[in-house]
Specification:
Blueprint: E1 5-11, H1 14-17, H2 21-30, E2 37-44, H3 50-60, E3 64-69, H4 75-85, E4 90-93, E5 99-100, H5 104-114, E6 120-123, E7 127-129, E8 143-147, H6 148-158, E9 166-169, H7 184-194, E10 198-202, E11 207-211, H8 221-240, H9 248-260, H10 268-289, H11 294-307, H12 314-322
Parallel strand pairs: 1-2, 1-4, 2-3, 6-10, 7-11
Antiparallel strand pairs: 4-9, 5-11, 6-9, 8-10
Helix pairs in contact: 6-9, 7-8, 8-9, 8-10, 9-11, 10-12
Length: about 325
């Protein structure tokens, strides 16, 4: 089968932040060995020359299309705009400062074709320091087929919660709520994975997540720590609590890994706000937490103590604190 694959990508001031990165990204898309693609580039109100660079690529290759937001509307609004403009039955999201292996779309398309009961291909994350990659051909893809239960538990344990680097059957994304401004990827991915019955897990690297000291991932961690709790509380209320007890322990495990990262960078006032969020989350979930299977409950506690060794008695006292 030679289905059209739609690649949608938000673009906002990439050119001025990381000179040359957008061109390298677009070139990695253009050079895909699977050629029946369309590329939807959503300029989210850029004030540098990012939009002009996208226009140049669209003029050179009619598979590239540029959509504009008049003002910056956040990354997920740009993603939604791009997705709504996609024509293909298979869709792929990418970030404009990363790189795709030349065989990325070919391999993931072939896997969904070979396994029609699967609804998405999950690629492994490969953080990469450096602006260029020496791509090695992939001759025999290494993959496994997982059920929803197996895959969602892996989502919580591994942290592979990005929206990008995954090929989806379009219907998986049709009804998700894109309107979130906190933990963008985790909130969206959780919705998608809970709607997916069977997954292909690709263990080869086809997407290179370029690491930079000035990237969003490596900055603003203090602010992100507060926002993370807001999203985790929202996700518990909407998608997990009272609906999926089979995922409780894994959700708590992921919660503490995500929520405690960056704590030491918070100001005194932000630490106070963070503790208030913690109190809110525990009050909401304590009765479910203590009913979790013991091994994972202990992992959660170990994760906490790793970040706060002075809190070894924390889990013994928290019930009294919130009762």
């Amino acid at each position: 089968m030679n289905e059209l694959v739609s690649i949608f990508c938000p673009v906002y001031n990439i050119s001025s932040r990381y000179p040359g990165a957008l061109e390298r990204f677009l070139d990695s898309i253009k050079n895909q060995t699977y050629t029946n693609i369309e590329v939807i580039l959503v300029d989210d109100g850029s004030t540098d020359d990012s939009a002009a660079i996208c226009d140049q690529w669209a003029q050179m290759d009619n598979r590239f299309h540029v959509v504009r937001h008049g003002t910056n509307r956040t990354i997920n609004k740009a993603r939604e705009t791009g997705f709504r403009r996609c024509s293909g039955s298979l869709v792929f999201n990418a970030d404009p400062d990363d790189l795709l292996h030349p065989q990325a779309i070919e391999i993931q398309h072939a896997l969904l074709t070979e396994h029609p009961n699967c609804q998405m291909v999950v690629g492994i994350l490969h953080p990469h320091w450096g602006e260029t990659v020496n791509f090695i051909p992939i001759t025999n893809p290494n993959y496994e087929i997982l059920s929803q239960f197996e895959s969602v538990r892996r989502l919580f344990r591994s942290g592979n919660h990005t929206v990008w680097n995954k090929l989806y059957r379009r219907e998986l994304l049709d009804s998700i709520d894109w309107d979130v401004t906190k933990i963008n990827d985790f909130h969206l991915t959780l919705q998608i994975w809970l709607n997916c019955n069977k997954f292909v897990y690709l263990n080869d690297t086809t997407y290179y997540w370029i690491q930079r000291d000035l990237s969003v991932t490596h900055t603003n961690r203090a602010e992100q720590s507060i926002k993370k709790f807001d999203t985790l509380i929202m996700d518990w209320n909407r998608y997990i609590g009272g609906k999926h007890p089979e995922y409780y322990a894994d959700f708590f495990y992921r919660t503490y890994i995500m929520a405690t990262s960056g704590f030491n960078t918070l100001s005194h006032d932000n630490k106070k706000a963070w503790r208030e969020k913690l109190h809110e989350f525990y009050k909401l979930t304590w009765n479910d937490y203590i009913r979790c299977d013991a091994p994972l409950r202990e992992k959660v506690a170990m994760c906490w103590v790793k970040h706060f060794p002075q809190h070894k008695t924390f889990f013994g006292k928290i019930k009294a604190l919130i009762s």
